[in-house]
Amino acid sequence: MFNNVYRLTGVRQIERVTTSTDLNTPGKVIVRPTLMSICRADERYYTGTRDKEVLAARLPMALIHEAVGEVVRDNTGTFTPGTKVVMIPTHAHGHDNLIADNYLRSSTFRSSTEDGFMREYVTIEPESLIEIPAGAQSTMNAFLEVVSVAVQAVRRLQETMINRQDKIGVWGDGNVAYMTAVVAREMFPDSELYVFGKHQEKLDFISFANTVQIDEVPADLKLDQAIEAVGGRGSEAATNQIIDIINPRGAIVLSGVSENPVAINTRMVLEKGITLAGTTRSSREDFQTAIDLVANNHAVKERLELLVQNVKHVTEIKDITDAFDEDLTMNWGKTVLDWHM
């Protein structure tokens, strides 16, 4: 069967490449993507702002790692045709009993080290698919991957911290920080939750936690644990502010991606006995938790649906580039591709 793949070939240049797909490939499932969401990492590839060596090594490549779809054919007997599924972008090439697939250096990642989901059909292993129950189905399913990343960050905090969780802080007011706060609210139901940011118009979307402007932090406010979800140039200032505010023996999970090295106040890390833990991407277990949160808690679903700020009906390549260009101008929220390619 012929299969169209839409690959980024240069700055803002997306081209269709026709490949062939064997419908009878043993151990594989054929999925037709239906909803996708654009990530900042996709935008960095699209605009050519990634390192030149990285672009040279990875392009041409299909973008998008946030996507859901519908099963067309399953050669494993795991899913029936028509089943709505989320696709997991981490592609494990081996497993470790102590280390999750998303941390293994042998794993590849769709839309980073192999083609992403911007295709007509995706041939994928069944363990990289999870069914989305009817009660969880929504346009926001397009970015369930990001919700799973938030779950992984909160889970890392639970694994790392000492048993003191009266006050939890999340730094950042972008999409990832918002989703992290939504998840933290559910996974730390008895804690006081604080979200720190610099843009009041973004903090105003948060009605389920205390919000604090980063330049107006009360002098007497101390936190037990924290998650940094700022990333970029702001991650350095955010991490150092957390180090100043957090209580001794507190844990800080670093989840914001920065392209450049970040200088932190290691002296105070030592004096306070602070634990720093890194987190990246997510595991199958995190995806399942994300789906369960959406399926079982209407408030979570509603809060995440607020992020759907732009839905683009995609039937041609121009619609793809228009969606990416529009996403670049958005101050907050996610662009969803209603995929009909």
Please explain how this structure is put together.
By secondary structure, the protein is an alpha/beta fold. It has 2 domains: about 1-130 and about 305-340, Quinone Oxidoreductase, Chain A, domain 1, CATH 3.90.180.10; about 150-280, NAD(P)-binding Rossmann-like Domain (Rossmann fold). The chain is about 30% helix and about 30% strand. The protein is built from 10 helices and 18 strands. It has helices at about 40-45, 50-60, 145-160, 175-185, 200-205, 235-245, 265-270, 285-295, 300-305, 315-330; strands at about 1-10, 15-20, 30-35, 60, 65-75, 85, 90, 110, 120-125, 130, 165-170, 190-195, 210-215, 225-230, 245-255, 275-280, 310-315, 335-340. The strands form 4 sheets. Strands 3, 5, 6, 9, 10, 17 and 18 form a 7-stranded mixed β-sheet that branches. Strand 12, helix 5 (about 200-205) and strand 13 form a beta-alpha-beta unit. Helix 8 (about 285-295) crosses helix 9. The two termini are about 15 Å apart. Pfam families: ADH_N, ADH_zinc_N. Keywords: Metal-binding, Oxidoreductase, Zinc. This is Ribitol-5-phosphate dehydrogenase. Belongs to the zinc-containing alcohol dehydrogenase family. Its cofactor is Zn(2+).
What's the topology here?
Layout: E1 2-10, E2 13-20, E3 29-37, H1 40-46, H2 52-58, E4 61-62, E5 66-74, E6 84-87, E7 90-91, E8 108-109, E9 122-124, E10 129-131, H3 144-160, E11 167-171, H4 175-187, E12 192-197, H5 200-203, E13 210-213, E14 223-228, H6 234-245, E15 246-254, H7 266-272, E16 275-278, H8 284-296, H9 298-305, E17 308-314, H10 317-328, E18 334-339
Parallel strand pairs: 11-12, 11-14, 12-13, 14-15, 15-16, 17-18
Antiparallel strand pairs: 1-2, 1-4, 3-5, 3-9, 3-18, 5-6, 6-10, 7-8
